[in-house]
Amino acid sequence: MEKISNLEPNEVWGYFEELCKIPRPSKQEDQILQYLLDFADKHNLETQQDRAGNLLIKKPAAKGKENLKPVVLQSHVDMVGEKNQGTDHDFGKDPIKPYIEGDWVKAEGTTLGADNGLGIASQLALLASYDISQGPLECLFTVDEETGLTGAFALPSGFFEGKILINLDSEDWGELFIGCAGGIDTVATFEFDREKVPEDHQGFKIQVTGLNGGHSGDEIHKKLGNALKIVNRFLWNISEDYDVRISSFDGGRARNAIPREAEVHVSIHEEDVENVKHYFSEYEKQVKNELKVTEPGLKLSFEQASLPGYVIDEDIQHEVLNALYACPHGVYAWSQEMEDLVETSTNLAAIKTQENGSYFITTSQRSSVDSAKNDISSMVESVFRLANARVEYSAGYPGWQPNTDSEILKITEDAYKRLFNKEPEVKAIHAGLECGLFLQKYPYLDMISIGPTIKGAHTPEERASIETTKAFWELLVEVLRNIPEDNSVQ
Q1: Which long-range contacts (CB under 8 A, 24 or more apart) does 381-389 make?
Q2: Contact between 208 and 284 (Cβ < 8 Å)
Q3: Which of 5, 139, 202, 335 can bridge 14 by disulfide, Cβ–Cβ 3.0-4.6 Å?
Q4: Torsion angle of alpha carbons 195, 198, 203, 207, nearest 10°?
C-alpha cells in the first residue's frame, strides 16, 4: 500500500501521516498536544499554552521580513470519532489507518481526521520550513472544537499578537470563506420508570444503518436520511395499533453530525408480532423509495432478540415518540442576502439511554442571524417541553459577519488568480467556525478561512482530495509571501 507521505506536497502529507498515528478525539487531546510541544522543542520554537490547553507556537520572520504584519494560522487539534458498524476501533487508543484511492485519501472504517488534521499538518510544514519567505508567524492550535468550541471559548485576550488570522478549517477548495453561522445546542432529558416486561411478549431489535450521515452545517440541506427520524417514525406508527414496549433507544454520536445509525430494543406481544413484521416490510419499502436518491445504502433490520431487562413506562414512551416525531430537523430558512446559503437549520443529532433511567436527546441549531438562531432553538425547546422533558441549552457561539472589504481577502483572491488563472468564489458557510469567538476577543482581526476539499466529514466516508491539498498548500505559501508591512510598527 502506498504511503501517503509520498504524496505531494510531501511535507504536508508526511505530517498528516504522523498525526494519524496519534489518537485525538475531542476531550482526549493530551497526546496530540504533547506531540506539538515536542515538535516545537525540536525546532527551537517558542510556545505558550493557556489553561484550556490551547497552544501557540511562534516562528520568527524570515530575514528581511520582520516588518510584515504578524499572521496567525489556526486549526483545531481534535477530530470526530465515527466508525462503521463492525469496525473494531478505539479512538482513544488506536491509530487511524489512511489509504489512497484515486485522488482521495480515506481511512479504513473510520473518520479520517482530515478535519482538521490537514490544517495542523500545513501549520507544522510551515513551522519546520527554512525556505519559505514569511513574516512573523503564530500557529494557534485550539482544543475541543467539535463538541462545543470550548477551546475557543476559553481562549484569553492577548494570547496572540497577530492582526491577520487565517483559519484552516474549511472543506471546499476554490471557495474563500469570510463568514459563518453561529450555533447553540438544545438538549432534552426524559426520565422514565423501569417496568417489568409484560407477559406474552417477545424481544426484538430494530436497527437503521447504511446512511451517509454528514456534517450538520455543510450537508444539512442535502435531504440526507436521519436514522433517529426513520426508526422513530416506525415506532410511532406501530405503537398506535399494537402492544409494543420500548426499552433502550440509542442513535447518533456527535452534536454536529447527522445521525447515521440507530438501534432500539423493544418487546412486542406475541399476538401482534406477525402484523408488526408485515408493517415493517411495507415501511422499509416506503422509506427506501423516499430516500433512493440520497441514501441508496440505507438498511433497516427487524430481528428477534432476547427479551430486554425492562421496558419504560407507557406515558414516557408516548411522550418520547411524539416529541421525536414533532422535533424539526433540516433547513428552516435560506439566506436572503447570499445565494444558496442556508441561513437557519436544526439537527436532531443523538439519543442515548442513560444508566440512571433517562433518555438524553441532543439537538443543534445554527443560523447566521442571531435572533433566528434563538427562535429555532426555542421552537425545539417548546416541542420537548410539551412532552414534559427537562430542557437545557449550551452556551452557544456567535456567527462571523462577512467583511467584503477585508485586506486578507483581497490578498488571497489575488494570490489565487495568479496561481490558478481563475477567480475564487467568496462565500459564507453555514457550518460553525471558531472565527466568531476570536472576533469577540480580538475585534480588530482581519480573517479568512480556506482549506482543501474534504468530503463526508464526521462520517467514516470522510475523504481528502490529494489534488486540492497540493493547491491549498501553494495558495497558503503564496499568501504568506504577500502579507503587507505593518505600518503601526515604528
Answers
A1: 381/186, 383/323, 383/326, 383/327, 383/328, 384/186, 384/188, 384/323, 384/327, 386/323, 386/326, 387/190, 387/319, 387/320, 387/322, 387/323, 388/190, 388/319, 389/188, 389/189, 389/190, 389/319, 389/323, 389/361
A2: no
A3: 5
A4: -50
Kindly write down the DSSP assignment for every residue of 244-296, as one continuous string.
EEEEEEEE---TTEE---EEEEEEEETTTHHHHHHHHHHHHHHHHHHTTTT-T
Residue ranges with strand state E in 336-388: 342-354, 358-367
| Active-site hit among 17, 29, 145, 343 | 145
- Which one-letter amino acid corresponds to residue 436? G
| Bridge pairing between strands 330-334 and 164-167 | unpaired
Among 441, 488, 461, 347, smallest CA distance to 54 is for: 441
Of 29, 78, 115, 138, catalytic: 78
Residue with C-alpha cell 505559501?
Answer: 477
Q: Cα–Cα distance between 335 and 347 in angstroms, integer?
A: 18
Residue-by-residue DSSP string for 95-108: PP-EEEETTEEEES
Terminal-to-terminal C-alpha distance of the chain: 55
Judged by DSSP in three states, 53 sits in: coil
414 is catalytic: no
Main-chain dihedrals φ then ψ at residue 254, nearest 5 degrees: -105, 145
Q: 457-481 b/e with 16+ CB inside 10 Å = b?
A: bbbbbbbbbbebbbbbbebbbbbbb
C-beta of residue 97 within 8 angstroms of C-beta of residue 88: no
**Pairing state between β 175-180 and 425-429:** parallel
pLDDT tens-place values along the chain, 490 residues long: 579 999 999 999 999 999 999 999 999 999 999 999 999 999 999 999 999 999 999 999 999 999 999 999 999 999 999 998 889 999 999 999 999 999 999 999 999 999 999 999 999 999 999 889 899 999 999 999 998 789 999 999 999 999 999 999 999 999 999 999 999 999 999 999 999 999 999 999 999 999 999 889 889 999 999 999 999 999 999 999 999 999 999 999 888 899 999 999 999 999 999 999 999 999 999 999 999 999 999 999 999 999 999 999 999 999 999 999 999 999 999 998 788 889 999 999 999 999 999 999 999 999 988 899 999 999 999 999 999 999 999 888 888 988 889 999 999 999 999 999 999 999 988 987 899 999 989 999 999 999 999 999 988 999 999 999 999 999 999 999 999 998 875 4
